[in-house]
Amino acid sequence: MATLRQQIATTALTVTKFRELLKRVKANRPTDDLELIRKAYDFSQKHHAGQTRASGEPYLVHPLEVALVLAEMKMDPVAIAAGLLHDSVEDTSVTVVDIRKEFGEQVAHIVEGVTKISKIDFATREEAQAENLRKMMLAMVDDIRVVLIKLADRLHNMRTLEHLDPERQQKIAKETLEIFAPIAHRLGMGKIRGELEDLGFRYVDPIAYQQVREAVEARRKPGEAFLSKVQQVLSDKLHEAGITAKVESRIKRVYSIHRKLVRQRIAVDQVYDLFAMRVITQSLQDCYAVLGIIHNVWRPVPGRIKDFIAMPRPNFYQSLHTSVITSDGTPFEIQIRTEEMHKMAEEGIAAHWKYKDGPVSAQDEQRLAWLRQVVEWQRDVSDPNEFLSTLKIDLYPEEVYTFTPKGKVVVLPREATPIDFAYSIHTEVGHSCVGAKVNGRMVPLRHKLHSGDIVEILTQPGHKPSRDWLAIVKSSRSRNKIKHWLNLHQRERAIEIGRKLIEKEARKYHIALKELKDDELQRVASDYGLGRPDDLMAGIGYGKYSARQVLAKLIPSGSEPLAEAEGAKTGGIASVVRRVFGGDQNNNAIRVKGHGDLLVYRARCCNPIRGETVVGYVTRGKGVAVHAQNCPNVLNLMYEPERRIDVEWAHDDTTPASYPVKLTVFCDDRFGMLKQITAVISDSKTNIRNIEARTANAQANIDIVLDIADLKHLENIINGVRKIPGVHDVQRLQKI
Ligand code: MN
After folding, report:
1. How far is Cα 607 from Cα 609, in angstroms, rounded to an integer?
2. How far is the centre of ligand 1, averaged over its atoms, from the C-alpha of 62 (Å)?
3. Sequence-ordered list of residues with C-beta below 8 angstroms from that of 7, at least 6 positions apart, any chain
4. Among 197, 208, 184, CA closest to 351
5. Is 527 strand, coil or helix?
6. Which residues are CB-neighbours of 336 under 8 A, at least 6 positions away?
7. How many Cβ atoms are within 10 Å of 181's Cβ, its own excluded?
8. Whole-number Cα distances in Å, 142 to 71, 372, 377
9. I need a surface site. Which of 31, 506, 548, 640 has the fewest CB within 10 A?
10. Nearest to residue 280, comparing CAs of 251, 321, 248, 234?
11. Distances from the Cα of 517 to the Cαs of 377, 508, 551, in angstroms?
12. What distance in angstroms lies between residue 66's CA and the mean position of ligand 1's atoms?
């Protein structure tokens, strides 16, 4: 418990600060109603009562200081009230609902946004994290004031960083340099950015900071003397020309000097332009007039004149820059800009913001659009891939921002699935992904992720990606990874087929494949311009070369094939394909229209069952693959429409066929669940081939392989299982 004396001291301190706040708001926005601010102060005081900061000061000082920074930005009472309340949801028992009740929707919305940002963990060292944050902010910031409060919050935390332990200092300072200062920069807020950078630099690299500081201090006196002389010369010249302008001189910021040292790889005593001048004019024309006068007095350094007035920087910064050299050889930099441009350079988005008051609505939308644009433009100034990034402007709202259970941000395209999430974590995680939990609940792999989802990927070692994933993934990364895997393994399969075809062909000559010498195979492969025997086998498997031709090159001339063996006429392909692709007797339930004798097999990607609309596709050397009409691969295959062929289910009632179909049931893990599911299945007189369950957090995924006669049969079972209480979804897995 604080003593009475302490309480009085606390109150005196915060009351003084609060008066200062009101004074500043009144000065900047005389017509504003201060009631909301008073109320927020009372509320904040009540809820932070008894809390102290690491400095030992009452906690209330912090929200007050944040509000003061906001008042300096000329923010409106809503923003300042939100600033006073910004930590109340995080650090006290107050909820957003309470805030909404007391202060209305706008304040509550902003406080909620600030609280959300505070919860993101930016600790990961990847460079991408900064980018993620930027996007994160865009996703959450439908009110610019959220960012401004966060920046004000960070500024005060940096100003009082000395009270924290070294480890926390490092973490917070680094975050400030990597994330918050760049955001301030992107929003054109030069003043806050400068202070954040210098404060951050001081903690992140204290030695370098000290060196620069000392170098600046050592040259401060002669530098200031030089600047005041130069300043006088220029003021006189401007006066002569009848131009009214403010001439300022300044020592450059510590961090910007440091950056220059690093960039130019020079020692601190080699930096000459620690000093700079600024001329603030009353009109745009005067800017150019001033530039002319300056170049008349001093010699400009070639290539250093930059016209950011005609060509504003992406964050709307405008100024003329030039470097000149005095007659005794001292170079210095001068910036020339109007009052309005100056305000923009210092305050950025906040400078714009204050011109518009009133309800947050269409204008805010515009500001947000502006923010997005600024952030976007700024981003790729040094990116060679500029076209792509410009394109991304349009893609932005199309993204969702999800989290790992540890709080790392994962940015994915809209409608991305857990598979996309898995691949963005690691390729292997993607390949072995078997399921996912979103916000603690099991979901199907095709589940669409939303912003704010916490996603946990369930993997199974040895699990393999499936071609149907291509139809549900949204990110190009996952698409490429899956395709790459499939190509790699397709080749393996092609090699296997090639071998079997050669074997089959060779058997006609009573030759076993192993009798064929490796160097012989190598020779023939070379004949075809291929590197290795495997390439040759793959070529046969893909149908590029015929097994017979290849064999002819392999075996001694004059060998006669045996009399046509049984099955040889339909080609070795049929049985080979059956073996390799697991084709079964049910295939003949499908007929190729007009071609009764063509080899058909049910595509493994979709395993169509009787009753489904099917399409045929002529493969290279493997016969006709029959896909379900809605199979994702059908679309992919259609780039060669000439290979499409009409197929239909044969009306063959004499041989009742059944197909193995795999279902996954997503359900609660409760007593009796499995029994109810199997009851539904056995009621429809269906054979269960296999059943497997995985459980976690009271949720279960149950994989069931059933013998299914046709589509209707399957639909009955799915509908039956879906009706069981606690079953969330039933999904047919294309692959078995
Ligand atoms: Mn805070």
Report:
1. 6
2. 7
3. none
4. 184
5. helix
6. 278, 279, 281, 287, 290, 291, 294, 319, 320, 321, 322
7. 26
8. 21, 11, 19
9. 31
10. 248
11. 63, 18, 12
12. 8
Residue in the structure block whose two tokens are 């009351």: 15
Give the pLDDT of residue 121: 57
Strand, coil or helix: 25: helix
Q: Taking Cα atoms as reference points, which of 287, 349, 298, 286 lies closest to residue 323?
A: 298
Q: Could you tell me the distance, in angstroms and rounded to a whole number, from the CA of residue 148 to the centre of ligand 1?
A: 12
CA of 317 to the centre of ligand 1 (A): 29
Q: How far apart are CA 624 and CA 594, in angstroms?
A: 13
- Residue located via tokens 């070639």: 302
Instruction: Dump pLDDT digits (tens) for 504-528.
Output: 777 777 777 667 777 788 888 888 8
| Alpha carbon of 153 to ligand 1 centroid (Å) | 5
The structure tokens listed for 471 are 């139809």
**Cα–Cα distance measured from residue 123 to residue 129, given in angstroms and rounded to the nearest whole number:** 8
| pLDDT at position 643 | 67
> Which is more confident, 160 or 511?
160
| Residues 543-577: tens digit of each pLDDT | 777 788 888 887 765 555 444 433 333 333 333 33
**Mean pLDDT across the stretch 640-658?**
66
Q: Which two tokens stand for residue 415?
A: 């409608």
Length of the chain: 736
Look at residue 11 and tell me whether its pLDDT is greater than 50: yes
Q: What angle do CA 594, 596, 598 make, to 5 degrees?
A: 105
Taking the alpha carbons at both ends of the chain, their separation in whole angstroms is 67
Residue 455 pairs in a beta bridge with 438
DSSP output for 399-466: EEEEE-TT--EEEEETT--HHHHHHHH-HHHHHTEEEEEETTEEE-TTPPP-TT-BEEEEE-TT----
Type and span of the H or E element at 571: helix 571-581
Confidence band of 3 (pLDDT split at 50, 70, 90): low
Q: Residue holding tokens 């909820």? A: 95
Burial call 455-491: b when 16+ CB within 10 Å, e when fewer: bbbbbeeeeebbbbbbbbbbbebbbebbbebbeeeeb
Catalytic residues: 90-91
On whether the CB atoms of residues 275 and 334 are closer than 8 A, the answer is no
Query: How many helices and strands in the chain, by DSSP H and E?
Result: 30, 21
**Cα(63) to centroid(ligand 1), Å:** 7
The share of the chain scoring above pLDDT 90, in percent, equals: 22
- Residue 558 to residue 502: CA distance in whole angstroms: 18
Cross-strand bridge partners of residue 321? 306, 335
**Do 647 and 600 form a contact (C-beta atoms < 8 A)?**
yes
Say if residues 680 and 721 touch (Cβ distance below 8 Å). Answer: yes
| Average pLDDT of every residue of the chain | 78
Tell me whether strands 600-602 and 624-628 are parallel, antiparallel or unpaired: parallel
**Which tops the pLDDT comparison, 10 or 172?**
172
Give 643's DSSP letter.
G
Asked if residues 696 and 442 have their Cβ atoms less than 8 Å apart, the reply is: yes
At residue 595, the pLDDT reads: 55
Give the global pTM: 0.51
Q: Identify residue 702 by its one-letter amino acid code.
A: I
Tokens, residue 355: 């011109």
Distance 156 CA to ligand 1 centre (A): 8
Q: What is the 3-state secondary structure (H, E, C) of 12-26?
A: HHHHHHHHHHHHHHH
